[in-house]
Amino acid sequence: MTDSLKNTALFAIVAGLIVMTGFTESWNTALFIVNMGLISAIMAIGVNLQWGFAGLFNVGVMGFVALGGLATVLVSMDPVPEAWSAGGLQVIGGLILGALIIVAAGVAVSRLPKGRMRSLAAAAILIGGFFLYRAVFDPAVAAIEAVDPAATGYLGGLGLPVLLAWPVGGLMAAGAAWLIGKTALGLRSDYLAIATLGIAEIIIYILKNEDWLTRGVKNVNGLPRPVPYEIDLQNSAQFVERASGWGVDPVTASTIYVKLGYSVLFTVVLALVLILAQLALKSPWGRMMRAIRDNEVAAEAMGKNVTARHLQVFILGSAICGIAGAMMTTLDGQLTPSSYQPLRFTFLVWVMVIVGGSGNNFGAVLGGFLIWFLWVQVEPYGLALMNLITAGMPEGSALKTHLIDSAAHMRLLTMGVVLLLVLRFSPRGLIPEK
Amino acid sequence: MDFLNAIVALLNFVVVPATVYGSQLALGALGVTLIYGILRFSNFAHGDTMAFGAMVTILVTWAMQAAGMSFGVLPTALLALPFGILGAIALVLLTDRVVYRFYRAQKAKPVILVIVSMGVMFIYNGLIRFIIGPNDQRFADGARFIISHRDFKEMTGLREGLAIKTTQGITVIVAVLCVLALFYFLNRTKTGKSMRAYSDNEDLALLSGINPERVVMVTWIIVAALATIAGTLYGLDKSYKPFVFLQLLLPVFAAAIVGGLGNPLGAIAGGFVIAFSEVLVTYAWKKVANYVLPEALAPDGLAQLLSTDYKFAVSFVILLIVLLFRPTGLFAGKSV
């Protein structure tokens, strides 16, 4: 069996699994899996760029995904004029001041002669600057958060079309990646892992706590959509007529129509990202990346700037994760900072990349779909399994209730087992690197 | 008098909580650092090992409470702790046999082992949620306070009170005992010395006839015991929530790295550095400042540097500073 035949078969199997869900459960579930699968595939390509191409161990995927979500709010929500007049400019000014203070401390460190004076001066700038920054920033934040807290209490966004948020999400993630990469990429791999893990947590804390920016745990609901609303479709006589022509009731037809709309948009993005990633892999740049990955010392001896290339690929991969994050928040229609959890958004993406095949873009896509399918479907399957196991037990026994209630937690266990099995018996993944 | 009040307030809100938290972090970081020193990878499953050991302890505690056993003024969980440790040891030894040993034999790269430990983390996390569920669990009993707020005020006549919870006292005492035992073991016993030798230079240790599998096994046993103790103490002191232990992974790693990965002494120092800075930066200084400063200078606000929500960010910033200026940590650790 040739490679391409095997790969086609693998994709066909995953597609078949999803279609089967459509028949056995509902087409809504199947389309939900497809949509999130498309997003997962994009995230997996991003991580694959970093890990598969360059061997960078980034466990901060969640942070970049969340930044993409933030971009959706900042770009697409309508601005809140009262909040802006209450303290908008002052908050921006405070942030710029904070950045200037850090720059000033940096300048002090680089200009002054080495010694105790330098450390003291830098510390004085930082500490004094911190209080100054808080004095400007805090009142403005309080003023903004006081503006109708139940409905707004934040600055809102720019009120631009939501599709624009996707590239902006990528840019924001790229900016954050540049900052992190500048500081952490020179360190060894374990340290990069811990650093990215920490950054991701910090980004989530910021989203959760800076209410003036994201409304924090109050969530931002009702993000604009790039596709029509179900209710509008149901009210449109033309749509209802066409739905009855297909023999589907208008409610189901409208939900499926909306989900299909998203699928088309996501497929376009995935196709673009995949084509670019494939071109990159096959280009001299891609070969250089793999050369650096396989032997940094040799690559450096050949005159390659390892740190700069690492920074480059780190930014690219993170930007792709940011785009995927913006797409995901658009699909959800709301930003819920408390829903970002490392197991789901960082480590699950890693499982996708490893299972699919690190270093192979098609592997990442396959892994994205397959693992997302499992993540969604393990729950009902687990419940069915538990029902089967407990069928013989007496009704109402404590063990039976416990087992059935716990079926929901099967998915983490399954992901771990899948990851370990693949690492052990097929360490190069389902579609190995060529 | 005002000065004394300030000191008591500082003790009550900063020194005592930070010492307790530091002890818990130090025990956690010791586990991370030992794995790094002997098995040479960063174990992402460590947080969940802590959660698993604590979970077994809690289940046994509940069984004991149901059977009417108690430990007097001390929490019953202390009686159940040995069972928790045994449970965690069984789990990690099984994991090592089924999962890690294969990669050790292959001499896999450390980063592969880190990814493997990610898979193990998933499995542990799933197991824990499966057995005890993701919710908050309370299992502390016995006397609540060594000194309560009011007793202290009556005793000393000060305006500020100092409260020390039983769990806080136990945490510090148990941590000190564990550390003493660990250092006695590492420095004085033959097995401990062979562990250090193996960590310093694997090939030389193998040539000297040290059995690597035995060293690895002993390491896992010690790590499981430390993790269970740290997890149980943290659960007793705050509350047991499986999700929290994944978040603890960051300060624990920060402590181990700040101290110098692979260096047990560094792990303890790192734990306290992280804990004290977290508490100091997120403490509202208003009270202390009101006592110490003259009235004119007293702050209007809470005089809090950062909101408590950002305490994990503090550990991370310290980590970054140390990594940038002293990449091997405060105490020279390994830098592979």
UniProtKB/TrEMBL annotation, chain A:
The chain crosses the membrane at residues 7-24, 30-49, 56-77, 83-108, 120-137, 157-179, 191-207, 260-281, 311-331, 343-362, 369-389, 409-426. GO terms for molecular function: branched-chain amino acid transmembrane transporter activity. GO terms for cellular component: plasma membrane. It comes from the Bacteria. Keywords: Cell membrane, Membrane, Transmembrane, Transmembrane helix. InterPro entries: ABC_transp_permease, LivM-like. It is a multi-pass membrane protein. It is found in: Cell membrane. Coiled coil: none annotated. Its main location: membrane. PANTHER family: HIGH-AFFINITY BRANCHED-CHAIN AMINO ACID TRANSPORT PROTEIN BRAE, HIGH-AFFINITY BRANCHED-CHAIN AMINO ACID TRANSPORT SYSTEM PERMEASE. This is Branched-chain amino acid ABC transporter permease. It comes from Aliishimia ponticola.
UniProtKB/TrEMBL annotation, chain B:
Pfam families: BPD_transp_2 (PF02653). Keywords: Amino-acid transport, Cell inner membrane, Cell membrane, Membrane, Transmembrane, Transmembrane helix, Transport. One of its GO terms (molecular function) is L-leucine transmembrane transporter activity. GO terms for cellular component: plasma membrane. GO terms for biological process: D-alanine transmembrane transport; L-alanine transport; L-isoleucine import across plasma membrane. The chain crosses the membrane at residues 6-39, 51-71, 77-99, 111-132, 168-186, 215-236, 312-332. It is found in: Cell membrane. It is a multi-pass membrane protein. Belongs to the binding-protein-dependent transport system permease family. LivHM subfamily. This is Branched-chain amino acid ABC transporter permease.
